[in-house]
Amino acid sequence: MSDINLYGRVFITANIKALTGLHIGGSSAGLEIGGVDKAVIRNPIDKRPYIPGSSLRGKMRSQTEKMLGKKQNNRIGQVTIHSCKTEADYTQNGGCVVCYIFGVPAEEYSKPTRLVVRDVRLTDASADKMDNANTELRYAEIKTEVAIDRVTSAATPRSIERVPAGAEFGPAEFVFGIYEKADFGRLKTVIEALQLVEDDYLGGAGSRGSGKVQFEGIRIYARSGEDYGKEIPLGKENYPTVQELLNDFEVIKGKLAQDIKAG
């Protein structure tokens, strides 16, 4: 493997607002008879729901793969993702943007993954608001759905636990490593992936109304390897929407090229 030079990092932070009920599944172990069929994932210490970085990053990757028409060729557990099988596939035509950004799992060649996505906690304000709300469960609601047998028309009820619409999580943090000049342009794909998540859904039961989210209060800045302790602002101080951040990308890219001297 060739030498790896980390020239700097770009940080994107934002709050995530649930516009419809949000279900990201956790363990249902220990639920009593009559409990919900599908529980949300919770912090075991304070019992607050949270958004795992793996779920958010995985959705960003899958939506980017679909948008670019990438071949789904690598089975990992219950999901299939795109993965370049050879280093030649990885680097041809300027590089596979999906594998450069999100990484290449379990292949003979090894390359640095650009994007890190942190877990996102429920904000204190939302937790306090839900503590005073009349919900069936703490920090959550129960949505009852009915599955209909298409042959017999028999109805089978099922219940799903969701974080209610209006809840906010944050701050979400996306950390993008700069290893070469081409990464300046690849950053746009990361921002576009946030837009793709907004336009699709996060978590489960999205086709049945759950999981519509919105990124708000977006901030973007960088740190250079030459002076890592200094925060470098990029673009505006705050972007209300992902679209406004995308609209300003060329300004952000120019600032990056000016302040991070990538080889």
Using the alpha-carbon principal axes, give the shape. globular
Q: What's the Cα radius of gyration?
A: 21 Å
Q: Biggest sheet: strands, sense, closure?
A: 5 strands, antiparallel
Mean pLDDT, to the nearest integer, reads 90
DSSP, total strands: 11
Number of helices, counting only DSSP H or I runs of 4 residues or more: 7
The string of secondary-structure elements, in order, is EEHEEHHEEHEEEHEEHH
Overall helicity: 25-40%
Adjacency order of strands in the biggest sheet: 5-9-1-10-11
Structural notes for this entry:
The chain is of the alpha+beta class and 263 residues long. It has one domain (8-29, 52-126, 165-259). The chain is built from 7 helices and 11 strands. The chain has a 5-stranded antiparallel β-sheet with strand order 5-9-1-10-11. A two-stranded antiparallel ribbon has the order 2-6. The chain has a two-stranded antiparallel ribbon with strand order 3-4. The chain is globular and about 60 Å long. The protein starts with 7 loop residues before the first strand and ends with a helix. The relative contact order is 0.23. The model is unreliable at 29-34 (pLDDT under 50).
Compact overview of the structure:
With 263 residues, this protein is α+β, with helices and mostly antiparallel strands. The protein is 27% helix and 27% strand.
